[in-house]
Write a structure and sequence with these properties.
Length: about 160
């Protein structure tokens, strides 16, 4: 099993991309290589065969995210990438991000994807993340990957 961490993500205004950069540096310090695909830069889906983690910032219509305003905008291409040839089956979890000013809608799209595709919601972070976020999220990712790899086939 490869020790690399594979990431599928979308970053429209650069915050998530910046965070992936910090995470990549953290992993590199622990001799782990990160391979990341930003769907904004690579919109044409390819078949993914190795386990990966998804990162998704929230872009939703206005509203409160409870009774209304929970409709995803702008990031649907990531969903298309996950759907392509059942790529989602190799995803061991999702990390959500957003802006806490959106209150109940904070990181909501990633929660919606976790439910839709039935993979674990690993963690969330705000905007470009805090100084301690790369380590916290790296640990969560390693844990989620181990859980996924230990799952008996068919469960
Ligand atoms: C039109 C628009 C809608 C947004 N909606 C939400 C939202 O519903 N919930 C949330 O937590 N953040 C929301 N955000 C904030 C983004 O998720 C946040 O800025 C994120 O870090 C963007 O990631 P990116 O720079 O990698 O694209 C919204 C931002 C924009 C521009």
């Amino acid at each position: 099993m490869s020790k690399d961490i594979n990431i599928l993500y979308i970053s429209l205004s650069g915050n998530t991309k910046y965070f992936i950069g910090k995470l990549t540096k953290y992993f590199a310090e622990h001799e782990i290589t990160v391979n990341a695909i930003n769907v904004k830069e690579n919109p044409e889906p390819t078949k993914l065969t190795a386990p990966f983690v998804t990162f998704l910032p929230a872009f939703l219509e206005g509203g409160n995210g409870v009774n209304n305003g929970d409709r995803e905008i702008l990031t649907g291409r990531l969903g298309q990438y996950l759907d392509y040839q059942d790529n989602f089956a190799h995803c061991y979890g999702i990390v959500g991000s957003g802006n806490r000013n959106f209150n109940k809608q904070f990181a909501l799209t990633a929660h919606q994807y976790a439910e839709r595709y039935d993979f674990p919601f690993i963690a969330d972070f705000e905007l470009r993340g805090s100084e301690s976020d790369p380590e916290r999220i790296a640990r969560e990712i390693i844990y989620a990957r181990a859980q996924f790899e230990n799952q008996p086939v068919g469960e």
